[in-house]
Amino acid sequence: MASFLPQFQSIKTSFDHVVLAVEDVSDLWPIVKKGFEERLPFRRAFLNNKTRNPVLVDELPAEYILTTDARLRSRFPQEQALFWFREPYATIVLVTCEDLDEFKNILKPRLKLIVQNDEREWFIVFVSKAPAHNDQATKMAKKVYAKLEVDFSSKKRERCCKLDLHGPDGHSWEDLEAKVMECIRNTLDRRIHFYEDEIRKLSEQRFMPVWNFCNFFILKESLAFMFEIAHLHEDALREYDELELCYLETVNMAGKRRDFGGLEQGDDQATLLDPGKKALAQIVQDDSFREFEFRQYLFACQAKLLFKLSRPFEVGSRGYSFIISFSKALALHERLLPFCMREVWVITACLALIDATASHYKDGLAAADVEKEFYRVQGELYTLCRTKFMRLGYLIGYGSDIDRSPVNSASLSMLPWPKPAVWPSLPSNASSEVLAKEKMILQESARPKHFGIQRKPLPLEPSVLLREANRRRASLSAGNMLELFDGRPYTNDGSGSPSPLPKGNTLSMSRTFSSTGNFEGSIDAPMRLAEIYVAAEHALRSTISDVEMWKSLSSVEEFEQKYLDLTKGAANNYHRSWWKRHGVVLDGEIAAVYHKHENYDFAANLYEKVCALYAGEGWENLLVEVLPNLAECQKILNDQAGYLSSCVRLLSLDKGLFLTKERQAFQSEVVRLAHSEMEHPVPLDVSSLIRFSGNQGPPLELCDGDPGTLSVMLRSGFPDDITLESLSLTLSATNNTDEGAKAVKKSEAIVLRPGRNNINFPLPPQKPGSYVLGVLTGQIGQLRFRSHSSSKSGPADTDDFSSYEKPTRPILKVAKPRSLVDLTAAVSSALLMNESQWVGIIVKPIDYSLKGAVLHIDTGPGLRIEDRHGIEIEKHEVGSRKTPNLDNQPDNLSPVSAAVKQLIPEDGKISLPDWTSNITSVLWIPLLAVSDGLAKGTPAGTVVPPRQNVVDGLRTIALKLDFGASHNQTFEKTIAVHFTNPFHVSTRVADKCNDGTLLLQVILQSQVKASLVIYDAWLDLQDGFAHAGKADGRPASSFFPLVVSSKSRAGILFTICLADTLAKDEAKQLDPASILNIRYTISGSRKLGAHSPVTEELSEPDNIKAEHLTFRSALVLQRPVLDPCLAVGFLPLPSSGIRVGQLVTMKWRVERLKDSEETMPSDNLDEVLYEVDINSENWMVAGRKRGYVSLSSKQGSRIEISILCLPLVAGYVRPPQLGLPNVGETNISCNPPGPHLVCVLPSPLSSSYCVPAA
Amino acid sequence: MASTACFMIVSKNDIPIYEAEVGTVPKKEDAAHQHQFILHAALDIVQDMAWTTSAMFLKAIDRFNDLVVSVYVTAG
């Protein structure tokens, strides 16, 4: 069967649709052909797939072939069975007949003959040529067709259909197509069944010696092909998948050794997408196929079907795994294949796959995740291709042009060297090329990294190429391996110094070499690196058949171009697949190429992306590789801001990643740039480099309005000291976000040491609230930096990544305004008027230091400071108030004690001493309250409004205290101090003696909280009075000293008598009142109230001799009236009594007792004013209450005043009273002399209200 | 056989927070770079995989020549 392969191949290439046979019985085909073929391909065909499920095929191409056609005639039966798929799927018998007899006699037997024999699917198309208007012909055609149906259609199946050439179209064609489709479906089912049977039969022999894979393949592929032409691509694909599985099983079956293939010219180019590249017959080997070609063929068939199914993504993903697995297969046979065949094949396969899938793929057709996957696979293919391409480049000496980045290093250093049986040896005529390579090797020098960073380059090779190549050379014996490294300067081929090979290697090597038996001519010294390169180049040239590919390896420039293309392709696809890390890393590789070619602009852009990725995710080890390159590009591009930022980022990386020297280089660059002539100040974020935090412990607490000093800890990440021109820090209030952050500044230059620095910021007064650290800004030369990273609380050394999740700790708390100090009067009781007195003011700091406080004292009117004396200050002791017994208090009035200090006021200002700054102290100010008027005595019994007294004695002191750290706080208060006279004096006449002398009692009421001692008292009498006897107005001296305790009373009696008066006018002017003089001393404590006046002799020991004070009080004495001039008598009421509701006449009789001229000089008109005082609740007055009555001024004249009243209430009530307002009370003699009561009876019962008892 | 392995804990923001080179092979300077690079690149795969499965252990998600990347995704 295998011999049919070439034929099979040719059939497959020429045949791609379903064939339908046309048996043209009545020569109708030329007429109907057009109509038939117009309707091809079939639309919306339903076919059954392998599992007998209907599948909708959108489009089924088909061809009508007459049975007389040569293509259908010359076929051998065996071929027919094998390639059944190309046999017609239906036979359409075209007939026409217009005569029943003709049908019966000629047509019917013929048709019977045609349809009887085989199992072909057939049906008869009766073509009616009758024109529509010819009823006769139409009728006849109908009859014939009916007859035809009777004869050929069965109940099971209708095998006839009618096509009316002139009739209406439509229905008849649909019927025809349905018939055709039914036939195709049936045929397909039957053939599938047949192939399946055959395949099953063959499969059962799989483990028998007769098993032939080629036979199996032909059957299986025939089936697959049949599916394909029926457009059942899914089923076809499944067949190929099964075929592949079966083949791999066959290949891997142990015991059978087969050629792998891949040794022919052009095999290096992958044919995984071109099934027709090589004829299958060429790759037959015994009973199977060569693996190299056949697997690619199978994949190509699959890929073709997948493309037809519009699944380019699947081609890509299947292709990628195919390449990987095929590459492994190549590795197994690498020893037999040309040098680097595997790498070359993978490169071409990847590129072919990429091209094919990309051209078939249309964006937006697939689902989003499929699209992502598609691009990812594209990226993977590019990456694979790129890796292999780099490997080839390295082998021929372009290694130094490959960036030794982590990605390249990771790709290449783990990828084993090619393992040819024998490493290619140097062609004889290549000495000039070797020289050129030598030169290239010598010229290349590792480009010095920016900042003088010295790094061991990352490896691009799994082991030293020199050693590997020489080890694999047939010409070297195992013995001289060690000579390799002797006396030979080591060229720059990567890394590491030569090390003796392990001894185990020698054995394995000798075996390797002996087994190949492929010794080449010269047995000489080991190859040098340049020779290895040249040898590899020559070997590759013979391996690579593709001109384009060889071109891209022919020179460094071409290599780089291709390398760049591949890298870009990979990066772009990774980006489109959202694998940003893969994409960005490759962007870094592109940047490296641009960097090398001094295309710094592009390089910087791409490097920035890479750095942003690594920095954003914190992969510092990887960032270290790229960031210096970015910095270099930025420096060359004169991007100062970028360069500075890169330097700062370099500095902020983990210290272990760079040497101190390198870090110093970064810093010096920053400083140099900052102080160079930059056009504009450059803002820079140094959050990672300069961190700051408040000091440990509770936040600084300030009172409202106070300035302070904020201590902030700065951590400098610079390796050396660095000078900052200025530094400022913003504070943001936590409670009030509307208000912007406030900045505190430190304008002088600061030198930051590496590590921890404590910086004190002067803090102006802030609003109340709690503040957290905001942003730190500062300036280094032209560089304006800012740092946001306040490393909150906690141990500042930990570089913990989660610090931003911690709540912010307030650094400063400014308290709400509150009283910080209080000034109160020390004494609440009254002090002595007109004497200098100590006024105590308690200065009480409320949790606030009064250091440096200044008190301004401003006395109000009637008060002045006694400048002669200093102001005293002492500690205020609460306990000192617990001595209530004034009398027992020693007269220690001298305030000087250990705790008392003298202060001298300046312009009304006093600076409080420091020792008082935190304690409550009392300030004693000597003050004199001045009152011009004399104290006035009052007659006993009269009530003097006390308020008047108090107001008279009230003085105010306005106090203003400036305090606080910078005298920013002010406290103002006005204190009222009460001054009073020592005594309140009242007088009464105690007795009127018969001889005209009067006993005048003077009552002294102490007004102060101190004991007073009266030493002397005398009375300067006013005109009209004289002292009785010879006395000088003094009481008996034996009474003195008289002690008057606090708030107690004392009395002194004076005997006086009336004296003649002087002329009235003079008397009034000279001496309106008598004066009481009292000489006294006071013994009281200033802590309680009044005390002895401030004296200059503060240190005088004998306090008793303290100066006697004099108190003077005016007393107004009135001459007593001895005889009243008028008499008022209440006349008796009617005897019947008075009743409520009955009018009653009240009568008074007024009688002049003596002539009025003397006593009442003003009342010359003899008119006397009267007034009735009446209680309106008890009485109602009918008539005038007030009026004048005429009364003769003669002695004895009388008059009667009567008033009609109505009593309102019953009981004893006070009757109305008659008063004479113009006459002094003393001149009236009343009868009855005092108030009296009268009895008012209830109103008489009213009989009209009484109901007589029954 | 000498083996090398790198163990790394990566925070939710893809930031490496712990790294340890384990294994019997003497520590190579460039291995650290290589391992970091491979693990970093593997995050691309993790970010896709983590949402497709409810399993926490994602098994071997990536292979880099001889090195295999296995991932365990923690909850939360």
TrEMBL record, chain A:
Gene Ontology CC: cytosol; TRAPPII protein complex
Predominant cellular place of this UniProt entry's protein: Golgi
Record key words, sorted: Golgi apparatus, Transport
Domain of life, per lineage: Eukaryota
Domain TRAPPC10/Trs130 C-terminal: 1138-1218
InterPro entries associated with the record: TRAPPC10/Trs130, TRAPPC10/Trs130_C, TRAPPC10/Trs130_N
Localization in the cell: Golgi apparatus
Domain TRAPPC10/Trs130 N-terminal per the UniProt entry, residue ranges: 18-315
Identification of the protein by name: Trafficking protein particle complex subunit 11 domain-containing protein
UniProtKB/TrEMBL annotation, chain B:
Gene3D superfamilies per record: 3.30.450.70
GO biological process: endoplasmic reticulum to Golgi vesicle-mediated transport
CDD domains (UniProt xref): TRAPPC2_sedlin
SUPFAM superfamilies named among the record's database cross-references: SNARE-like
Superkingdom of the source species: Eukaryota
Name the UniProt record assigns to this protein: Trafficking protein particle complex subunit 2
GO cellular component, one term: cytoplasm
Record-annotated membrane-spanning stretches: none
